[in-house]
């Protein structure tokens, strides 16, 4: 049975960022409960990745399962129709996000919410009679998704831009943000924005943590600088919190570290606790007004078939409710403490450039590319699922992971760093 799954997978199924057929054989998951993945050979692995930031409550969580299994309709179109799950979710997101964000566009994935955010920026400028402002400013080292507008603001070196040259819009890039606050970097951002103000529609960044672009952390003070710069030139400030939203960095939203509110906020990944694909772009009244004005386009020009999917909205609402019901702040802080202790031995390993922990995120950066199969095999020997990339072995455990499981993840990361 599992052999046929393997060979059919190899014959027919693409996996992320891979060739066809794949270079390595994926593990076959037959069940997932709590923080554990069960494999077809009977092994159980502690999930160190939360299925790419999403499964913050682990798998088969009773409250989330109940939301999905309730006697509920599956989907209705969102054009001209509405329903309780979408309205309640949107209202809840407005309540818990930074104050000026009032309106919610429900999208079907993180990348699509970025496309929507970019449309908001362009339509905002158009409403102000500045239709020539069509570029976005960002900093290097970012990751915003795999659709074209999203890719265009990803790191130009690590983000596969060379592959799409001639097709991808050319955006305005600042240097990678420094690891600790540097006033000279604020000046660099201000200069760049001033030089390009006539052609810029908005600024988009991942606040505090750059995820898939390199797992780098930066000072929240640079976000305050971006807010000022955006105001100075009337640019729409977009924070991509698809990875950082819902507590991962130790605040509910990473923007909260800086006490700065964006004009547009994108959330996804942990929004549904990893159950179904859904994301959202939240915006201020000023952005909504401009987008809706005749000059701005008379409305937001986007409308996915599965917009506001009721099942996804129900499970998202259950996920947010569950998160806020628990003491997520202590859970995240506790994971951070165990990871800080657990990853410390990696500092003295040869080939390790840096070890860093923020919130419930732990990163070991090597001075060379990870030998991924070797590193993964080392982690599996410790009973842990990790997915290193480039020079990074990293973990963002489910918030419900108990200290023993987090400690085991820490050992696995160190073992993977030593092996890979
Ligand atoms: C994952 C991610 C995205 C893309 O989300 P998808 O749901 O994969 O399209 C965008 N931005 C950030 C910061 C992400 O981590």
UniProtKB/TrEMBL annotation:
One of its GO terms (biological process) is biotin biosynthetic process. It comes from the Bacteria. Its main location: cytoplasm. This is Adenosylmethionine-8-amino-7-oxononanoate aminotransferase. It comes from Actinomycetospora corticicola. It is found in: Cytoplasm. Transmembrane segments: none annotated. Homodimer.
